[in-house]
Amino acid sequence: MFYTSIHQDPSFFDDSEKLWIWKFDGNDMYMDVGETVRVRVHSLRYNTPPTPIQLQNAQGDDKLIGTALRPFSPLEVVGDINGDGLGLLSWWAPPEEEEAQ
Question: What pLDDT shows up at residue 31?
Answer without folding.
Answer: 85
